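Hi Q.,

Before the meeting this afternoon, I wanted you to have the succinic acid prediction in hand. No need to reply - just skim if you have a minute. The sequence and ligand are here:
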Amino acid sequence: MYSHIQVRPLSGALGAEVFGASLAGEMPQATIAEIKRAFNEYQVIFFRDQEASDHDLARFARHFGDLAVLPPHRQHPGQFPELLVIDKKPDTGLVFGWEWHSDTTHLEVPPLGSVLAARQLPPVGGDTMFANQYMAYDTLSDAMKAMLDGVKAVHSNSRILASLEVDDVLAPGQGLGNKDGTMSAVHPVVRTHPDTGRKALFVNKMHTERFEGMTLAESQPLLNYLYEHSTRPEFTCRFRWEPGSIAFWDNRCCQHLALDDYPGQRRLMHRVQIRGTRPV
Ligand code: SIN
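Predicted structure with the ligand bound:
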């Protein structure tokens, strides 16, 4: 199947480790083509033992599209604007990405995907989980699929902005939103992946507020069911970080969750995002 890289699946649901490719420096086109295939096949891919700088991450990500600057995130002096620094310090109360989500779906055009590199890890803990949203859609009943067909949902960043403890990452009030930094967007509840043509469930607990045209109270029971269903253990994989690990996930067809299980320790990650297309 693959002749330029080796691919080792991580679970029966999604995720694969990719060997035989170095993200530091230029990559042969044939290797990039196979990485793109593995990305579409497994939704999230992982690299081990990499010595990739932040600029290497950016160069790798650009093989998949332009980089996206996420407006509500704090910029760090001396770093390029597309770099997101996720720094959970020993005294930070809440980890960034603490519940299941797709990245920044409060934007009209959420990212295609993100490349995340470990820079400093706790001795144990701090794994990241991923959930396959094609599977989440495919396993709904035909009646539920028909009911959700054409339904849209309102997504916002208000829950994140309310979490002051992730203040190290977010810069409330900065960017394109309202005065208080709140932004919202409306997306289809089921989206079709532009490359694979497959349908994926596209709601997440961190950002989705309600169905368009419905109240919060009317929306909540079904949304709660969809959150629970979309992250069933059999749809997931769990990635254990090591120094030099890099993850690259497809934001259009998987959700993820950063486990908050290393109190009193520091975990420092660097991330770049690739610009996506409007969900349809
Ligand atoms: C995120 O992008 O949500 C953070 C993931 C992580 O730090 O593991």
